[in-house]
Amino acid sequence: MPSTLTTAMDYDAIVIGAGHNGLVTANYLARAGRRVLVLEARPIVGGACVTEELIPGSKWSSCAFIAGLLRPEIIEELELQRFGLDLYQGDALSFSLFRDGTSFTMWKETDRTLREIEKINKKDASAFLDFGVRLQRFAGLVTPYLLASPPERSEVLAAFEAAGEQNLFDEFTLLSVRDLLDRYFEDERLKSMLTFFGMVSIFGGPSTPGTAYTYGHHSWGEFNGNFGQFGLARGGMGAISEALAAGARHHGAVIRTSTPVDTVIVDRGTATGVRLADGSVITAHQIFSNADPKRSLLRLIEPGVLPPGLVRDVENIDTRGSMARIHLLVDELPQYLPFPDANAGPQHHGHQLLGPSREAFEEAAEAQRRGTFPSTFVIEAVTQSVTDDSLAPAGLHTMTLGIQQLPSELTGTTWAAEKEKWADLVLEDLFSYAPNLREHILARVIITPDDLDSEYLITDGNIFHGSMMLDQLFGARPIPELANYRTPVRNYYLCGSGTHPGGGVMGANGHNAAKVALGDIAGVTRPARAAGAPTANRTRPWQQRLVGALMSTRSGRWVSYQAARQPALRKITAYAARVR
Ligand SMILES: Cc1cc2nc3c(=O)[nH]c(=O)nc-3n(C[C@H](O)[C@H](O)[C@H](O)COP(=O)(O)OP(=O)(O)OC[C@H]3O[C@@H](n4cnc5c(N)ncnc54)[C@H](O)[C@@H]3O)c2cc1C
Q1: Residue 90 lies in a domain
Q2: CA 517, CA 514: separation in Å to the nearest integer?
Q3: Low-confidence ranges of the chain (pLDDT < 50)
Q4: Which pTM does this prediction carry?
């Protein structure tokens, strides 16, 4: 769809929405010399990747709180460190406290984690390594597609087949997370803990086919080149968006906040500008929507412009499955049951998971289907002020809770009516893991699925802008007619998480949309891939091939495990897990 773009316009490009993806698009366009205007409805940039002073004097990552998916290529190309971004890690990646009072810490170092799992189940410790290598192999085959136009699903399957890994494709895309984990592990606590990563913003539970992909989606996370690791952003997740905004401005982009766009103006099938909520019109050659696909097509485009068949397909995009946050200001850190003192420890440094239980996840799925709440909640938490003193005054701490598998709409009532009562229920569960908190919560702010829809402008509060099941992935994301970032309205593009390769603070969607649109200006119908061609073995570092070969035999697995659990060989193990 090449475009000549000859008419005089106010801007070359308008980006609707300053979520992190919209800002990534703005950066790449501005760096290509385009005159870019970003229009954001909220008073602050970032969308779901934002830091806000929710209670005067303290700041929280309101929505996303873990940084692990942001593509390193984007961090580097857009010089985000130069524009103020500081990503960091604590010593513990995650801490899980089970319902029987036992706990588990996942450390940055593989050997420490393996020895910790040995305390739970020796066989599972060795299975954990095997699982990690399989996951890394899966990520290795899919990652080359991330910074690229979406491949057809058949192309992805063909790449797995060519690499002799069809079984791996099936495992991580078709299976339920329950079936996936049952293939590898024995211990119910470990399986429950790992199940959580397949429950993020889903409509369903551990037995729902396809939830293994939600697990796999998080697998291409890396931190400083280390596979499967994640960290935090100093200043909260908004620091990512602020760095992106600073970079875009540096290259000439104009960003206006508190400026909601009402409509995309379409003239004879071509987008020519936007009408703001105040009625004013701004014209541009290319328009990008960072909003989710339903909002971008059904609300921003006037009725009658799109073919009825497409409207029906967009209406059918699956946006069920949401989550909620409760932000707490506390004057004492949670004293989790195994650590009965108020001092900060590794349990407070990373992601905290309280009461993971596969039965609880199954019950939550049932409740979600009925539009109600389960009897108990699995709670995730982050206490970031422990490692970042810019977030709360001395003596106080920020604590953020997350609850997954929530219905967007409640049966017979509303989130507005239930919000406070629901938060009370969640806090009662929290007190069973950290009883001291009952007396130490100074204030709270609740963000429900309904708030995600109305305040953060995410349809149905689906944090990925659309479910991440195989029917809505790759060349079918969000639907086949809208894959590749273009829409049937000429010069109107999608650049948010509803596009390939999906949700999370990744930036890939914004990058790919910009490349496609720049290609359209240049008259290139299918721009060259931004990353290398996804040929499995060419993109696989030699150390991973060696690990793969070792792990393919029983004796090799034993040797690998013995090496991986040795602190003295830590550097070698870390090197083997490097993805770049
Ligand atoms: C509660 C929650 C927790 C999450 N946790 C994590 C996590 O820990 N780690 C992680 O990696 N990911 C997490 N995610 C997912 C991740 O945050 C999102 O997938 C990602 O931030 C979406 O980015 P985006 O730029 O595509 O869209 P958004 O961030 O949704 O940005 C879209 C922007 O468009 C604006 N907009 C919409 N309509 C208009 C309009 N008409 N006019 C002007 N502006 C408009 C919105 O205000 C918004 O700023 C979480 C998301 C949520 C909601």
Answers
A1: no
A2: 5
A3: 1-4, 527-538
A4: 0.94
